[in-house]
Design brief:
With about 350 residues, this protein is α/β, with parallel strands linked by helices. It contains 13 helices and 9 strands. Strands 1, 2, 3, 4, 5, 6, 7, 8 and 9 form a 9-stranded mixed beta sheet that branches. Strand 5, helix 6 and strand 6 form a beta-alpha-beta unit. Helix 2 runs antiparallel to helix 10 and helix 4 crosses helix 13. It is elongated and about 95 Å long. The termini are far apart. It binds (2S)-2-hydroxybutanedioic acid (LMR). (2S)-2-hydroxybutanedioic acid binds next to loops. The site of (2S)-2-hydroxybutanedioic acid has 9 residues, from loops.
């Protein structure tokens, strides 16, 4: 009669376990294997929250990332998109990312000030960066990398920079000269540079979450704001703004960010597949940004109730000069060296364009 104990058969003889026990062990092993397989199949969820509409450069690029991430990981990752501040508004989404309630965001770099990283407001300096090519050269270079490094101590990790072209001003009266802004309540993102810009124009800056802007314009809590055209149009702000000035006074840059612990905790193969998906989504985003904004301008024109005014070169020069004091004020915050580096890159891009002509 067997002892019921399992002895190794290397030692002193063959192993005798009662049949029932063997079945039990096999059954337990099967359960275990099953459980492991089920657990293994559970996809890693990435909640990607943002504040703009789907049919915008950021909305479309986030969806492109979703498709590629799910494809390249063979479904081991599932990306859930939450556009239009569905889950969180501007400020809340940053906090939600830090505590891991969501895994990915793509906020405007104008919104890192409240996090204590004001250096990103470099991109808010009016008329510092003249075109999208220079934006990409700056974000893909040392400046972009150094700025991302400043997010790491905040528990965040920078993955990529996306851009949404250039901002235009809108209000319910013509904005053709700097003094036309006097006394207007103008909505801005939570940036000290943008605040100083509005004050320099004699306007009253109002920091407000993006999702609140349309109703604040409609209820005349504010008089005007600044946006790339794709945001103005998809949020229907043109329906509550009688005047739009094409000023191209500043770029809107996004930082695609994740929670550092979440990212570092991912299996290495998954992380590299997600990096591949992000690189492709970034190329896609930059490819579509200009067309999305051009199409939005055409749609505002077609709407036909907003007077559209394009600043002439001479007028643009007047605005640029009127806003120069803002640069001087923020040299110590955003770095004089960074501003000089951008001027150098701008000159390189310009001279290469001239040579090509
Ligand atoms: C804004 O608040 O105006 C923008 O940053 C919104 C966005 O994400 O494009």
């Amino acid at each position: 009669m067997g002892t019921g104990l399992i002895e190794s058969n290397e030692g002193q003889g063959a192993c005798f376990a009662p049949k029932k026990t063997m079945t039990g062990i096999l059954f337990a092993l099967l359960i275990l294997a099953g459980a492991t397989a089920v657990q293994a199949a559970e996809p890693i969820i990435i909640k990607f929250s943002h504040v703009v509409a789907n049919d915008t450069p950021k909305g479309k690029a986030a969806d492109k990332f979703r498709q590629l991430a799910e494809k390249y990981t063979g479904g081991r990752v599932r990306v859930e998109l939450y556009p239009n501040s569905q889950l969180y508004k501007d400020r809340e989404e940053m906090e939600a990312l830090q505590r891991g309630a969501v895994q990915m965001l793509a906020p405007s770099v104008s919104k890192f000030g409240p996090l204590g990283v004001r250096e990103f407001e470099l991109f808010d300096l009016p008329y510092l960066i003249p075109d999208a090519e220079t934006v990409d050269r700056v974000t893909d270079g040392d400046i972009g990398t150094n700025l991302f490094a400043k997010l790491e101590p905040k528990g965040l990790k920078g993955l990529a920079y996306w851009d949404n072209g250039f901002k235009q001003f809108s209000a319910n009266r013509p904005l053709r000269k700097p003094e036309d802004f006097r006394g207007l309540k103008m909505r801005i993102q939570s940036s000290k540079v943008l605040e100083a810009m509005m004050r320099e124009l004699g306007a009253l800056p109002q920091v407000m979450a993006f999702s609140e802007v349309y109703s604040a314009l409609q209820q005349k809590v504010i008089d005007g704001t600044e946006n790339p055209l794709s945001n103005l149009y998809t949020q229907k702000m043109h329906e509550v703004q009688s005047h739009l000035t094409i000023s191209d006074h500043g770029c809107l840059v996004y930082a695609v960010i994740t929670n550092r612990k979440f990212w570092e905790g991912l299996p290495a193969d998954i992380r590299s597949q997600l990096e591949k998906a992000m690189a492709e989504a970034t190329r896609y985003e930059r490819d579509i940004a200009k067309k999305e904004n051009d199409d939005a301008l055409a749609a505002v024109k077609a709407y036909g109730k907003t007077e559209i005014y394009v600043l002439s070169e001479a007028e643009r020069k007047v605005w640029k000069e009127a806003l120069l004091p803002v640069r001087a004020k923020f040299e110590s915050v955003v770095g004089k060296d960074n501003m000089q580096a951008i001027d150098r890159i701008t000159a390189e891009v310009e001279s290469r364009k001239t040579r090509k002509k």
